[in-house]
Specification:
By secondary structure, the chain is of the alpha/beta class. The protein folds into 3 domains: 32 residues, no CATH class; 295 residues, Alpha-Beta Barrel (TIM Barrel); 74 residues, Immunoglobulin-like (Sandwich). It contains 10 helices and 22 strands. The strands form 5 sheets. An 8-stranded parallel barrel has the order 2-3-5-6-7-8-9-14, surrounded by 5 helices. A 4-stranded antiparallel β-sheet has the order 11-10-13-12. Strands 19-18-21-22 form a 4-stranded antiparallel β-sheet, with no helix packed on it. Helix 9 crosses helix 10. The protein starts with 8 loop residues before the first helix and ends with a strand.
Length: 426
């Protein structure tokens, strides 16, 4: 008997929900994925030419935001459009978000390539350049740097540049990531470079494209995603550092040219296309493939990376929402506050000072008004490791000797405000 044929809409809904939950339980068991204990990274890139989409993006569904791309002038000064409004909105919507500046990019002018080579291939230039990057990060209150130098921009100084930049960032309590190809390892990427990164964004897309017009087909297949993760795992990168890249765009292979398009462009034509991977010679990733890739990342990686956020549909067909919902269904947590904006992040209302930082046994926390809320210490993957409720005071002393050395996020709630500070414990 087919029960669904006589079910009321409400009973059908309950039946579908139970069926889906049973399906996900079986998936968790089959892939040996721990339920309700894991945190997942969702890393989204936002390029300067998409800043106008700022108000549409659900930053609460993103754990890491890579603002891109900044590139140096001949003197090593990073040049990029003003992104203050991006930071303001992202942190208002998601106080837990970590914001990186991404440097380089896949398309550089000859002048930009020459600047990079001059600045990183020579020791004295490299030292001064890294100082300027650190100053840029601190001046904009960023959480880290993502290095996206590709192909002929990966010059002889790349190895020392990445390692030295990582050391300088970690000294300041900042983070480091790199974007690397799906199944190719530059000779300059040795084991020290891999170790220097806190995580690596694997570009598991562009297997074909405008540079290969006689090879029409899927540029970011599920199989390519599998091969990419296996490639870097076999190159010694642990699961905890691997972030699987997925595209929010595709390529249309025409008779005389190959043109890119966004996922939104395709769904704007017909919403049924949201669940396909190609229409004719137009190839992309629809929602079912994105779901499969999230499942793959759940078993073989630490998260999902998106190129890029503004190519999405900002409604019920959203790929970002698909990623968010799929991780939630699999029992993973992210640090966003979607649907539950309990706190508003606003430094101008209240501020705190945390010192010494770095510290080893004790820190002091000062405020411009008495504390009246909880203080929580989180690891970078969002795990709560210490919580205190201080007495009303403008200055408190906190014993941190029970915390292991590392980088933590201190979150202080007071009224409707939530203020975050990075803390380095040595």
């Amino acid at each position: 008997m087919k029960l669904t044929s006589t079910m009321t809409p409400n009973l059908k809904s309950i039946h579908n929900k139970l069926t889906n939950r049973l399906f996900y339980l079986l998936i968790l068991i089959f892939f040996n994925i721990p339920a309700f204990t894991q945190n997942a990274k969702v890393v989204g890139y936002l390029p300067t030419y998409r800043f106008s989409y700022n108000a549409s993006i659900s930053y609460c569904k993103v754990t890491h935001l890579n603002i891109c791309f900044a590139n140096p002038d001949s003197q090593g000064n990073l040049i990029i459009d003003d992104f203050s409004s991006i930071i303001d909105r992202a942190r208002r919507e998601n106080p837990n978000i970590l914001i990186f500046i991404s440097v380089g990019g896949g398309v550089l002018s000859d002048t930009q390539k020459q600047n990079w080579s001059d600045l990183i291939d020579f020791y004295s230039n490299r030292v001064e350049f890294i100082k300027k990057i650190i100053s840029f990060v601190k001046a904009h209150d960023l959480d880290g740097v993502d290095v996206d130098l590709e192909w002929d921009a990966v010059t002889s100084g790349y190895t020392n540049f990445v390692i030295s930049l990582s050391n300088s960032l970690h000294t300041e309590g900042k983070l480091m990531s790199s974007a690397l190809p799906g199944t190719y390892r530059y000779s300059e990427v040795n084991s020290d470079v891999l170790d220097a990164n806190d995580f690596i964004n694997i570009m598991a897309y562009d297997e074909t494209g405008p540079w290969d017009p006689d090879n029409p087909g899927q540029h970011s297949s599920f199989e390519f995603a599998e091969n990419s993760l296996n490639f870097w795992s076999n190159n010694g990168v642990p699961k905890e550092k691997l972030i699987l890249g997925v595209p929010f765009y595709g390529y249309n292979f025409g008779e005389n040219s190959v043109n890119s398009f966004s996922y939104a462009d395709m769904v704007n034509i017909d919403t049924d296309y949201a669940d396909l991977d190609n229409v004719g010679n137009a190839y992309y990733n629809g929602r079912p493939t994105i779901r499969r890739k999230v499942l793959l990342a759940s078993s073989k990686a630490a998260g999902i990376m998106i190129w890029e956020l503004a190519q999405d549909r900002f409604d019920e067909f959203s790929l970002l929402t698909t990623i968010h919902d799929e991780y939630t269904a699999l029992g993973y947590t992210t640090t966003g506050l979607c649907g539950n904006p309990t706190f508003i992040f606003n430094k101008e209302i209240s501020d705190i000072k945390v010192y010494p930082n770095p510290a080893s046994t004790v820190i002091y926390i000062e405020s411009d008004k008495e504390f009246d809320g909880q203080m929580n210490f989180y690891t970078l993957d969002g795990r709560l490791v210490k919580s205190i409720l201080p007495e009303n005071s403008l200055k408190i002393k906190v014993n941190i000797s029970d915390l292991n050395p590392g980088i933590y996020i201190l979150k202080v709630s007071s009224g409707n405000n939530l203020i975050s500070r990075k803390l380095v414990i040595r």
